[in-house]
Amino acid sequence: MLDKQTLFAASLFPYLGFLWFLTRSGQFPRLAVIGFYVLLLFVLVTIPAGIYAERVYGESLANVDWLHGSAESFLTLSNILVALGFLLAIRRQETASSEQEK
């Protein structure tokens, strides 16, 4: 039977594939692409933070507020970058469309 750590590790490979195709396509807003990479950074920060929480505090990461909040800030930053990247792309497209109509 697969445990949660094995599933977590296995899920990284499809995400890395997603990032590879996303980067190669050139079809996504650059800021959004950066946001998707920051999500990977969030994962990479969360793993050692969870290990630290277990070893030092004897608790899961979710129970060590300062450490959990610090790790989650990368997720927040990722979400902001992705949303802002697509918002700016939509606005650029709208501006280009309105200029073509003139």
Fill in the keyword field for this structure.
102 residues; 0% strand; 3 helices; transmembrane helix; membrane; transmembrane; mainly alpha; 85% helix
Describe the structure in your own words:
With 102 residues, the protein is an all-alpha fold. The protein has a domain at 30-96. Helix content is 85%, strand content 0%. It is built from three helices and no strands. It has helices at residues 4-25, 30-57, 65-101. Helix 1 (4-25) packs antiparallel against helix 2. 6% of the residues are buried. The model has no long low-confidence stretch (mean pLDDT 92).
Q: Give the integer mean of the pLDDT values.
A: 92
Rounded radius of gyration (Å): 18 Å
Series of H and E elements: HHH
Poorly predicted regions: none
Largest sheet, in brief, is: none
Question: What is the first-to-last residue Cα distance?
Answer: 63 Å
**Considering DSSP H and I runs of 4 or more, what fraction of the residues is helical?**
over 70%
Beta-strand residue percentage: under 5%
What structural class do the secondary elements suggest? mainly alpha
Question: Count the strands?
Answer: 0
Overall shape: elongated
Tally of helical segments? 3
Transmembrane segments: 6-22, 34-53, 73-90
InterPro entries: DUF3593 (IPR021995)
Keywords: Membrane, Transmembrane, Transmembrane helix
Pfam families: DUF3593
Characterize this entry briefly.
By secondary structure, this protein is mostly helical.
List the helices and strands and how they pair.
Layout lengths: L3 H22 L4 H28 L7 H37 L1
Helix pairs in contact: 1-2, 2-3
InterPro entries: DUF3593
Protein name: DUF3593 domain-containing protein
Organism: Dactylococcopsis salina (strain PCC 8305)
